[in-house]
Amino acid sequence: MDEKKIIAALIAAANENIDAGMVYDALETPPDRKMGDVAFPCFKLARTLRMAPPAIAAGILEKINEDKLPGMISKVVAAGGYLNFYLDRGAISKATVDEITELKDGYGRSDEGAGKTVLVEFSSPNIAKPFHIGHLVSTALGHSIARIYSFLGYDTVRVNHLGDWGTQFGKLITAYKLWGNEETIMKDPINELLKIYVRFHEEAEKDPSLEDDARANFRALENGDPEITRLWRFFVDASLKEFDRMYKLLGVDFDSFAGESFYTDKMPEVVEILKEKGILEESDGAMVVRFDDESMPPCIILKSDGTTIYATRDIAAALYRKRHYDFYKNVYVVGTPQTLHFKQVFGTLKKMGFEWADDCVHVGFGYVRFPDKAMSTRHGDVVLLEDVLNEAVAKTKEIIVNSATSKDLDNADLVAEKVGIGAVLYTFLKNSRERDIIFTWKDILDFEGESGPYVQYAYARGCSVLSKAQEAGIDYGSGDASLLTSDEEYNLVRMLSSFRDTVREAAARFEPSIVTRYVTDLAQQFNKFYNTCSVMKAEEEIRKARLKLTACAAECIKTALWLIGVDVVEKM
Questions:
Q1: Which residues on neighbouring strands pair with residue 494, listed in sequence order?
Q2: pLDDT, tens digit (0-9, with 9 covering 90-100), for 141-157
Q3: Using an 8 Å Cβ cutoff, are 243 and 145 in contact?
Q4: Distance in angstroms (rounded) separating the CA atoms of residues 323 and 318
Q5: 125 secondary structure, DSSP code
Q6: Cβ pair 543, 476 in contact under 8 A
Q7: Coil, strand or helix: which one is 319?
């Protein structure tokens, strides 16, 4: 049941000049429950209705017949410029708990996205470079955003736009020709390729002519040189095997691995369209699209040596995706340093006459920072993701083994893997995506604070209670949730009832941290309920109702964690 829809319809029915959709979007939750459960601020209507907000609130209240209020609303009060609705606790508890009990993991889902395709481009690591901790931000964010949109009924396409083209391959090929040993590289492809890539940059600082060799080798790759192409293919295949291991560990999958190289034969059309539109200009030997009227640097399409740049490939990719998928939204989960790049790409598409460029969205994010370490692929200073995940699992296993409550675990290794990896994912998604992530083990593996293990433990606690009820032969399916009217019970119910709106807000803002914040608050609220309200020792009918509420809380925690890519465990 969506009580906000009922309230919005009630307000709209009281005044024919008020739109129910506008009311729905404007409804708020008062900061203090004494002020009601749902509030409608009338300030937005002041100009339209030409009345003061308090007068608008009083006028609407006068036309609402309190004798015919829906059963879920106990009273309505006008206070200043607000119309405050007080809900009947028993009715709300029953409606919410019964709905979750019926829908289970379908609670909160919707079909609002039916018939609309959302492309989410994320992860997109560079070929022949290790999968480091920085890649996890895009991977975790994109995976969660895709799940959130899928949950709302959108046809979601997960795209891994691999960095498998560009000048860096000219550098790597040059390095391989000079210092590569195929037998050595085959034993440990990624690490050995990184070594020679780092060496290239070290040597190029002493001998700048190596940069010319690199550009020549990339030109040869673009021109289809057989030997250069063979080396490039070797780099790609070795990297994909490495990446696949990481994605399996994280539980991440993709619908498309079409990387930059996929669009090499589609770039000439981009150049032709730009020429036809008369917006491709020469600048110091390069071909660019200018944005003088927008105070933005020009977008380079072709470099002075005639080779393409990743902007060219992104424009070609956008064209292909629109034609192939006819997307509703084309989402790029890429770091905030690329903000200008995407403004240029979207701006170029707009100049080409494609209005759907407005449906392309750059979802930026901050850096991963370590208190005592900086990262640079060029200099080999990287923190490998696999090392971090392995250490998270090992540290979690140590905590579990030394815990008095974990003695009866018969699958400690699996629990440690789910909790350890979940702890890392949670940390990367708990704050606003544009904030930098400060990586410390103390915060990540905190079983008491705002952490993945804390939330997973709340779920396991709920499962433990339900398991005890099952062992005692208690059938709580017929429990009457209208009995759940105490503060702690009702606060938990209200938290559960806000799940649907939470998911919608996360989708609208491309912000998984909204779900992470929600599931943390839900776990905290469940723990308050658990510690305040006796469940198993309560009077029979209250016990059934509380067990039913416990099952609903566990279900919602599990679903919310799934939306951010975190698995649950039933025992910890």
A1: none
A2: 999 999 999 999 999 99
A3: no
A4: 9
A5: P
A6: yes
A7: helix
Amino acid identity, position 99: E
Tally of CA atoms within 13 A in the half-sphere of 284 that contains its CB: 3
* Locus of tokens 């021109």: 223
Distances (CA, A) of 451 to 107, 138, 498, 521, 551: 24, 20, 21, 11, 22
**What are the CA-CA distances from residue 460 to residues 108, 319, 453, 555 (Å)?**
22, 47, 10, 11
Tokens of 531: 């510690």
DSSP labels, 366-384: --EEBTTB--BTTTTB--B
pLDDT > 70 fraction of the chain, expressed in percent and rounded: 97
Higher pLDDT, 189 or 102: 102
pTM as predicted: 0.90
Give the CA distances from residue 434 to residues 145, 263, 368, 422, 533, in Å, rounded to whole numbers and listed in that order: 15, 29, 11, 21, 39
Going by C-alpha positions, the residue among 181, 254, 247, 167 that lies closest to residue 213 is 167
Mean pLDDT over 7-15 rounds to: 91
Whether the predicted pLDDT of 15 surpasses 90: no
Q: What angle (nearest 5°) sits at the alpha carbon of residue 492, between those of residues 491 and 498?
A: 90
pLDDT for residue 347: 96
What does the buried/exposed string (b/e) look like for 534-564 if buried means 16 or more CB atoms within 10 Å of the residue's CB?
A: ebeeeeeebbbbbbbbbbbbbbbbbbbbbbb
User: What is the distance in angstroms between the CA of the first residue and the CA of the last residue of the chain?
Assistant: 34
pLDDT band (50, 70, 90) for residue 382: low
DSSP letter string over 522-533? HHHHHHHHHHHS
Structure tokens at 406: 């974990």
Helix axes 310-325, 267-276, angle to 10 degrees: 90
**Which single residue is written with the structure tokens 């912000």?**
511
Q: Which residues are catalytic?
A: 129, 132, 135
Question: Rounded to an integer, what distance in angstroms lies between the CA atom of residue 447 and that of residue 467?
Answer: 22
pLDDT at 377: 44
pLDDT at 376 over 50: no
How many angstroms separate the Cα of 22 from the Cα of each of 42, 492, 502, 506? Answer: 11, 28, 18, 20
- Confidence band of 2 (pLDDT split at 50, 70, 90): confident
Mean local confidence (pLDDT), 489-496:
96
Q: Provide mean pLDDT across the span 559-572.
A: 95
Residue 469 burial (CB count, 10 A)? 20
Under the banding of pLDDT at 50, 70 and 90, the label for residue 374 is: low
Distance separating alpha carbons of residues 333 and 314, to the nearest angstrom: 13
Question: Using CA atoms, how far apart are residues 439 and 548, in angstroms rounded to an integer?
Answer: 38
Judge contact between 169 and 214, C-beta under 8 A.
no
pLDDT single digits (tens) 399-445: 888 877 666 777 889 999 999 999 999 999 999 999 988 888 888 88
* 458 and 523 Cβ atoms separated by less than 8 Å: yes
Structural domains present in the chain: 3-87 (3.30.1360.70), 117-264+311-369 (3.40.50.620)
What contacts 329, CB < 8 A, 6 or more positions away?
A: 116, 118, 119, 359, 360, 361
In residues, how long is the chain?
572
